[in-house]
Amino acid sequence: MVIIKGLSKRYVTNDADILALSEIDLTVGEGEFVSLLGPSGCGKSTLLKIVAGLLPATGGRIEIHGAAVTAPGPERAVVFQEYALFPWMTVEENVEFGLEARGVPAAERRRISAQLLDVVGLSDFIKKFPHHLSGGMKQRVSIARALAVDPQILLMDEPFGALDAQTRSVMQEELLRIWRLYRKTVIFVTHSIDESIYLSDRIVLMTARPGRIKAIIDVADERPRDLTTPAMAQLQRQVRSILSEEINRAAALEQADLVAAE
User: Which helix (H) or strand (E) holds 152?
Assistant: First the structure.
């Protein structure tokens, strides 16, 4: 279980003092799929990186199974929008990287990577290098690499944001299949209302900067979900209505920042 209490993040430089996140309170249950949704600049990715231990919080705390988060840990793995694969390594070597860093014997590394690459449908590409792969295939490798270290929590920062619409749809299906198989806790950052509804157990809607939690919406429908049904269409309208004011606020903040910089 992930517990976030009173979390804030402030960036202070010689030129600016920006409160990015303010008083975030959120609990994510074991095996739950939760999406963070909000306007650009609301702090979604910042929040995810703090949970990952990649950024320090300014205030508040995060606990995972009762232990405070102060740094990266083996119970968490991150999948970024940029694939972050090592170009000089094969697909197999990329998946095994975290295992090798932890001292896992070579034979066990091979077994784990082979199993996961089969799960993500890349068994025929284990000796290929990243430049041989499509965007969707690269992201499958990233997901397999994250799963290889057997984390309890999968943190995903807009992992499909750079993909075309068709590949994105395929990858959403793949992610749900993998989630059903392994039942990891997933915290997923997205800009897409449809994606958040299609994937999530709960959607956390955030305000424009400073990012706060404006609403949390349960998505009760069974998967797979048909977004064209009246119930799903109503949920889309509900989420869009809640976010519309914050999107306008974010645009006004961006305009004010541009004026101040002139």
Answer: none
